[in-house]
Structure formats: structure tokens, C-alpha cells
Design goal:
This protein has 19 helices and 11 strands. The chain is α/β, with parallel strands linked by helices. It has 2 domains: 228 residues, no CATH class; 198 residues, TIM Barrel. Strands 4, 5, 6, 9, 10 and 11 form a 6-stranded parallel beta sheet that branches. Helix 4 packs across helix 9. The longest helix has 26 residues. Bound molecules: zinc ion.
């Protein structure tokens, strides 16, 4: 069994010597930011010294308590003061390997208990705090990620050692009102796995492995956090996990499968201001949707600078709705082909995409003949809808919201229009419906390969 003595008497104004016996990793953890392992704590860092003093005090109080002490350390670490938890836990394991599972379980339980503090803070009003700290857009992403994969969104960060912003994830769980039992279980599972893994490594390679891995992780933490973020879905760029299927050849009216997706599809764009408001709305809320564009409306040129980046990122998708919105069942075949081609050219020139294979015939009117004309230009999916918000005719805000209450359901393709300003006054209520029903907005490309 290894044994060491930590002396910090070189710190001015603070003289203490704490016997830490088997906690071999402890000293070098405090030398974390220094290059050499054996150097004393940097004397010029007051905050660090204060934390160090507190840690030593807590260490002295809790150490004799054995497994309960481990629980206490972990709780303190999670609740308010970062402790060298890995070194403490594996120190105990190194001294008494047969108790490995018990130590790891107690430490994991302590972490879960201590985290309750932050969960409660988040639950009781952390939303304001968190929005102020990380911005509304990022907050909405984190919240959405909890709604999709709340267990992993907590368990994965629990597995990573500091300086992972663990408390931020915990706070977010409270804000997102993650189910409390799941919250505790996720932290326990993540922490337990981490401590068991580390303990086995310590038994196999000796206590130095904690510092060694800590050093590696410190250098690669950005990568590690990015991997966790991607895996837990807190990145907007993440791929959708459900298996993508090919878009149907023929008529599409609703999304396939049994998920919680909502495909908002917004047509026409008769108003420059309304399309501009949609661009702001998508940018601010992260909402994903598909526009069915009539290129004859100047709104799509006027708002291209605002929309194009979101088209490029895939948040917004463009579909073909003909150039100038005629009833294509009442005009000649050549005119139909021209309406589709002219609009495709406009989309390619303005947005770098042509919207294939998605074509929406104006008024939803189409025949086998018009379907074939569209298919000849690559538009093989005649995209209709399964719900609408009633704004193809003048409608009140209350009427529009009532229609949304009815049609915002899982796997629906919902029709709306960028023509009248009514909808731009209802964005908040529409988002409320989407969030309260745990719906995930998607473009058609999010769903179909
Ligand atoms: Zn239309």
C-alpha cells in the first residue's frame, strides 16, 4: 500500500499538514496545472489555496468515516465544492480492493445526492438563470436534448471527470424537469461506471494512472465534451437517430413511423415581411421546417441573405410549389412543366438547391398527368399534408392557435402559409404547443434519405 504526506506549509497564511495515507493521487491532483508532479501548490493563487484548505478540512473530517466518508466526499463534490474525487475513491479502492464495488457505489450515490441541490435550483427557476448564462438558443437545444434522451444527457457527462461542466448539465436537468428518479439513476449509473473503470485501472496499473488519464483527458477535453454532446443530442448538427427511409414515389401526406416528429411546411411567401419574420423565428428558436416556395414572390429573393445560411445548415428546406401558383389541373402540360422548371431554376440560383424530390401542387390539386410532368423533372414525391393551421383563408389568432392545437400531433405534415401576418403573432403559442407535446420539428430531409 502506498503512503504519502501532503505538506502545504509553504502557503503563506496557511499552515497545515494532512496525513492522507493511501490517497496517493491527491497531491498530484492539486499540482494539476503545473508541469512537474512533485512541486508544491502554487502559492500565488488565493482561490486555489482557499479551496485547497477547505478540501483538506473536509478530507480530515470525512476520511475516518470509511465508505460513508466516500459518500460524503462525492456529495460535497457534486453539491458545491469540486473535490479530487477520482483520487479519493481509487485511493480507498487501492487500499482495500475487495471493497471496490461498495466504494464505487457509495461514491456514485453521493454524487447523485449532492446533485439534487442543482436539480432543485434548476427546477425552481433555473430557466432564467440558464438562459442568461448560455443564451436562449443554446438553452432550447439543451432542453430539446433532454426531452429526447434525458438519461444519456445526464449519464454521459457523469462519466467524465472535471473540468466537464457537470453542474451545468445537472442544472439543465432540473430546468427541463427531467423525471427525478431517472435523474438520480442516470447520475448513479454514469458515476458508478466511471469509478469502477478507474478502480480496475488503478488496481492493474497503480494509482499513478489517475493522474495519467487526467492529464490525457485535460488535453482532449474539448473533443471529449464534443463527443458527449453529439451522443446526447445537445448539438443542433446531430444526425437524427431514426433510420431514414426513401421518400415515397407518389403522394406523401404524413410522416412514416411512430416517433414524435412534426413537419411544418410553410407555403407561398406572398409577404416579404412575413417570410422575414419566419427567418427570424427559425433562427431564434431553432425550429426546423420546409418552405414550399413560389419564386414569383419577391419575398424569397429579399429574404435570401437571412434564409440561405439556414438552408445550407439543413435547418430550413426548400421545396417546389410552382413559379406563380396556378391551378395546374387547369393549364396545359407545357405550362405545368414551365411552372415547375422556372421555379426549380430560381431555387437553384438563389439557394443552391432545387427541392427535389418534393413538389407541392398549388391548392393540393394534381392529376396523374401533372404528377408525371413533375416526376419527369425529378419531383417524384407529391407532398400534401395531414393537418393545417387554417391560414389559407383569413383567420383570427385564436382560430389559428385552435387549429394548431388540433393538428400539431406526432408524425403530421402541417400546412401553413407565409402570406398573412397573423401567424407571426402566434409563434410563442405555437412553440408552447410543440414543447408541451414533446414534439420535435423536422424538415423532410431529416426524415427521408
Ligand atoms: Zn400555396
Amino acid at each position: 500500500m502506498a503512503s504519502s504526506q501532503l505538506s502545504v506549509s509553504s502557503c503563506p497564511g496557511f499552515s497545515a499538514t494532512a496525513p492522507i495515507n493511501h490517497l496517493t493521487g491527491y497531491r498530484s491532483l492539486f499540482a494539476y496545472n503545473q508541469n512537474t508532479d512533485n512541486r508544491q501548490l502554487a502559492p500565488d493563487n488565493c482561490l486555489k489555496r482557499l479551496l485547497h484548505k477547505w478540501s483538506l478540512f473536509i478530507l480530515a473530517v470525512l476520511k475516518p468515516l470509511g465508505v460513508w466518508g466516500v459518500l460524503g466526499f462525492a456529495a460535497v463534490d457534486a453539491a458545491f465544492l469540486g473535490m479530487p474525487l477520482d483520487a479519493i475513491v481509487t485511493g480507498y479502492v487501492w487500499a482495500n480492493p475487495r471493497q471496490l464495488l461498495l466504494y464505487c457505489a457509495m461514491a456514485a450515490a453521493g454524487s447523485a445526492l449532492g446533485s439534487i441541490v442543482w436539480y432543485v435550483i434548476g427546477y425552481k427557476g433555473g430557466e432564467v438563470l440558464l438562459v442568461r448564462r448560455i443564451g436562449e438558443q443554446r438553452f432550447n437545444k439543451i432542453k430539446a436534448s433532454f426531452e429526447r434522451h434525458e438519461f444519456l444527457a445526464i449519464m454521459l457527462p457523469s462519466m467524465l471527470p472535471p473540468p466537464t461542466p457537470f453542474k451545468l448539465f445537472v442544472l439543465s436537468a432540473g430546468v427541463a424537469e427531467m423525471r427525478f428518479s431517472h435523474f438520480l439513476a442516470a447520475i448513479f449509473a454514469g458515476r458508478f461506471l466511471r469509478f469502477v473503470l478507474l478502480s480496475f485501472l488503478v488496481i492493474r496499473f497503480g494509482p499513478g494512472i489517475v493522474d495519467f488519464l487526467g492529464g490525457i483527458l485535460h488535453h482532449h477535453l474539448r473533443t471529449a465534451i464534443a463527443v458527449v454532446a453529439a451522443a446526447s443530442g445537445s448539438s443542433s448538427a446531430r444526425a437524427f437517430p431514426t433510420q431514414k427511409v426513401a421518400p415515397p414515389v407518389g403522394v406523401l401526406t404524413r410522416l412514416p413511423g411512430d416517433d414524435n416528429q412534426l413537419a411544418l411546411t410553410i407555403d407561398d411567401g406572398a409577404s416579404v415581411a412575413v417570410v422575414g419574420a419566419f427567418a427570424d423565428f427559425c433562427r431564434d428558436s431553432g425550429t426546423r421546417l420546409t418552405f414550399f416556395v413560389n419564386g414569383a414572390n419577391s419575398s424569397w429573393s429579399a429574404n435570401a441573405p437571412a434564409l440561405r445560411p439556414m438552408v445550407d445548415s439543413g435547418q430550413i428546406q426548400m421545396g417546389n410549389h410552382t413559379w406563380s401558383h396556378p391551378d395546374i389541373t387547369r393549364i396545359g402540360s407545357a405550362s405545368v412543366a414551365d411552372q415547375i422548371r422556372r421555379n426549380a431554376d430560381f431555387l437553384r440560383n438563389t439557394y443552391g438547391v432545387d427541392g427535389t424530390p418534393y413538389f407541392r401542387p398549388p391548392y393540393g390539386r394534381h392529376t396523374p398527368t401533372t404528377d408525371q410532368i413533375a416526376a419527369d423533372q425529378g419531383y417524384t414525391t407529391i407532398t400534401l399534408w395531414s393537418g393545417d393551421i387554417g391560414d389559407d383563408v383569413p383567420i383570427s389568432e385564436a382560430g389559428l392557435i385552435a387549429a394548431a392545437q388540433k393538428s400539431f400531433q406526432p408524425q403530421q405534415i402541417v400546412l401553413g402559409h407565409a402570406n398573412k401576418p397573423t401567424i407571426t403573432h402566434c409563434y410563442t403559442q405555437l412553440l408552447d404547443i410543440i414543447h408541451s407535446r414533446n414534439l420535435q420539428t423536422v424538415t423532410l430531409n431529416d426524415v427521408f434519405a
